[in-house]
Structure prediction request, 155 residues.
Amino acid sequence: MTDHGTVDVVDEGPAIRATVDLTGVAPRQALRAFTDPDLVRRWWAGGALTARLEPGGEYVVRFDALDQTLRGSITEYDPERTLAFTWAWDHEPDEPAYAVTVMAEETADGGRITLTHGTYEDSEAGRAAAASHREGWEYFLPRLAGALPPADGPR
Prediction:
């Protein structure tokens, strides 16, 4: 449980699925947690976000504390409901890229983010990557809920 809602992260075959129920937070505001540099810095500990919010646009998050950069491209964007992007670490150029899709929807008492992350190979390396990413989302997504202010008006 967080200030605004609940977080659930599960393995779903070759992907991870996470849901974040955000009481009193509008879906559009919840999706901004992945596109607004100030919000990204607040919950994801990204030192800097660079994003061109259109298909083919870059999506880059610099994690200063790790001295690492996540780099990819946007594959889908609708500011009301969807952000999808690919990513890989700059320091691991031979590792596979992964895809993240973030869907925002309205619920009776706020919004919900459903995030899918994958696809993971059925191999030791793939299972290790999935476990690492799941651990990351289990840590960061509760911070997302706590970083978002409640909606000020109608959703």
